[in-house]
Each structure stands twice: as C-alpha cells, then as structure tokens.
Fold this protein.
Amino acid sequence: MKQDLQLYNTISRKKELFKPLNAPHVGMYVCGPTVYSDVHLGNCRTFISFDLIFRYLKYSGYKVRYVRNITDAGHLEGDRDEGDDKFAKRAKLEQLEPMEIVQKYTLGFHDVMRVFNTLPPSIEPTATGHIIEQIEMIKTIIDNGYAYEVDGTIYFDVEKYSQKYNYTILTNRNLEDMLANTRELGGQDDKHGRLDFALWIKAKPETLMQWASPWGMGFPGWHIECSAMSAKYLGQEFDIHGGGMDLAATHHTNEIAQSEACNHHQPAKYWMHTNMLTVNGTRMSKSAGNGFLPGELFTGNHPLLRKGYSPMTVKFFMLQAHYRSTLDFSNDALDASEKGFRRLMNAVSLLPKLTASDNSEVEIDPLRMNCENAMNDDFNSPVVIAELFEAVRIVNTVYDGALKISATELDKLKTLMQDFIFDVFGLKDEDASNTELNEVLDMVIALRKDAKENKDYATSDMIRVGLQNIGIQLKDSKDGTTWSKS
Ligand code: AMP
Ligand code: ZN
C-alpha cells in the first residue's frame, strides 16, 4: 500500500494525505451520466480521469468499491426545479418511451466506455431503481426539520440548514452574494427561500415517469439520488466523491447539504473534481453546440476535425494533461498525441525482441519510483508520460545496440511498461489487437525474407516500398525484421 498518496480535496482546497476510513477498503462514488442523449468527449474526459484514479488505487493495493450512477430520472432542464424533464422531452422528440431513451443512451455510454478501455464500476445503480431509498431519505430530512412540503412538492430549506452548517463549504462562496445573484421569488414560486431546491416534485397528470410517495404522485429531484445511492452502497460516510468541476456549485453542494441534514455529518472525506475539456477556450457542452461525440472524433466526421483519431490516441491526449487542468481540444494537439502514442506502442512491440547482456548500463528502479511519485502526487499522469518516454528511449537504444541491459533490468523494464501503460493508464495497443493485420504482415515479411535469401532483391524491395506507401515501415536487424506504422 502506498502510504504517501496525496490527493487534492476540493473542500480543504489543498492536497491531503490519502487516509481511507477503512483501509485497505476504499469507497469511491462518481456522478455518472444523465442518459437522455449521447455522451460527448467532455463527459468522457471526466470518466477517463476517474478510471485512472480507480486503476491507480488498485495498483496501490487498495480494494476499491467504485460506484458510478446512471441518472435516468428527475433531471429538469433548469437548475431551479423548473423547465421540462429532459427524459420526457427526448422521449417525445424521438417518439419513444422514456425507458427506451434510458436504455438506448445507457448502452451507447457503455459502448463508448468500452472503446476507451475503461474498467466498469463495481456498482452502477440507477435513480429509478432507488426511488424507495430516496423517499426514505427525504422523510428523514423532513423529520430533522430541514425540508418542507408545499402541495406535494418537497423543498430543502437552505436558510435553516445554513444556520447550523456551511452550505458553501465546497465552493467557498459568500451566501449573501449567492442570494443577491439568485432571482427573487415570484408569485408563482412555492418555495420559501431563493436557494431552496426540490427533493421531490409533484407530478402533473401528463408526467410520463411518476411514482407514489407519502406526498402523492411525483418524482425525485436530481440531487437526492446520489445522496441516497452513495449511502446505500458505501455507507453514510465514505472516502472519495467525485465528478466534473461543473457539478460542485449546485449538485455536489446540495448533495452535501442533504446528507448532512439527514445523517448529521458530511458524506465524503475527500471531494475530487476534474477540470473541463474545452474547445477554443469554451467548455465543451451539448448546449454550446461544440460537444462532439466520440464517434465523430474517431471517424473525423465533424467540421472542427481535420481527420479521425483512434480511441487510444484520444485517451493518450487526455492523459497528457493533469486531471485538474483544463484541456483544450485542437487538431495539432491530437496530431502530436498520435505521434507520441505510436512511439510508445512501437517501443512496447520492440520489448520482446530486446536481448539481455551480462551487465547493465541502465537501472529501472529509479524510473518506477519517479512514476509512482508522480501518481502519488495527486495522480500526475503527464509526469508519468515523460518518464515513460525515458523508458522508450532506453528500449530504442538497447534495440540499436548502443546500450546494454541485464536480464533482471530488462524484466523490470517490461513490468514497468506493462504496469503503467496498460494497467494504470488503461491504454491498449490498437495495432496488436488487429491480429489479422499482424498475421498478414508476418506472412509478407516471411515472403520478403525468402526473396532476399534467393537474391530476388526486386521482389524484396517491392514489398518494402509497397508497405511504406501504405504507412508501414520495416526495420531489419540481426534478430529479424520488425514493422511499425510511420
Ligand atoms: P452529465 O451527463 O451532463 O451529467 O455529465 C456527466 C459528467 O461529465 C459530469 O461529471 C460532468 O461534470 C462532466 N462534464 C460535462 N462537461 C464536461 C467537459 N466539458 N469536460 C469534462 N467533464 C465534463
Ligand atoms: Zn451526483
């Protein structure tokens, strides 16, 4: 177990030593997607970041229960408990049942997560599957005096809560300023305070998804699902709660308030927030119209794209930025990532071909230590990538015969690359998975070898140049011929 892992806690606004409540067990809850439409690349960045954190905690020896929910009900268009239900609106638009919408976009989300080679969470609960738990929690909040009913709708009483607790603990905002910046209540508003938010919303007769409750037919507010489900699967107090930075101001602020009003203490010890993927400095989002879909990126079928990029190129591009920095999308940056990722994979493919010497001019332990230190410093993946390129340099120099490596150090180099590239980063060799291409190339290389042995240089050159023309480079050495994509 790495005892020196530091992570940035949004509540304290500094890096803290990670001390799980019940080591080696770790409970981590991440707010999942709202499945009324396709996930865009910005959403993917957040889930890929938490996949990295999940993987590294496991690498460090922790037993992680990773809960990532699916929001499949109760998400109104406005943050102020008004506007249409997103699922109902989409269902009408696509002429489907709301649950068909949920199924369609949940499957699509899983496909995208698989393409990015992320690990599935340990539990993936849905809001609609936990209506009873949400109602129970709301009942306790009402009993504790922090919520009130107005005609079948239940509101959380932020003013009352603020008398005892710090409502803005996550963002450090000034409550007076927040009030001043929030629209005044009008005649049609039922809630008592401007910052109050709905825990349960009364259904209209035409509401498509509604459930029975002690307050009549209705549906849950958006925030209560995460409070109820995290408590159910991780306990009333657990280790890490995460999501995108845009969730901190409202969704997570309200989650803390609900859990505290219900259980009298905060739900999570560490709050972690990933920064946004931007396009020309603007946050990628569906509403801004700059939120392109993973499929558009892979095919290049989008006006902002010069060409398509493979899933692992995109993932590598994301890992090259720290999860708390913004990451701006650009074709140039993706081109650079494509080259970098190929260099990395090329080195991986050379690993089995390296021969060990009796002595070693290189030591691998310091490299592993640098990688671990970087990850222990709030999951600093860009620093790990710089260290991995040092490993690439070693592989290439040994392969060229300009550096000696012993069998022990070579083994360490192989495990280091396996651990960080594949296990911790969750990258995969897209060419290696293309077994048919590998087999065909092995055959073509064997034919070229035969031609050379028969001094048929015209044929051997024709093969080499032909492959070069389709972007495949052959490299001859005393151990045989290898190929790489140029
Ligand atoms: P949603 O489906 O809109 O609830 O979002 C799912 C997750 O994606 C949440 O954790 C959001 O904070 C996150 N997210 C949304 N937009 C971006 C973005 N541009 N960059 C990174 N994460 C984002
Ligand atoms: Zn949530």
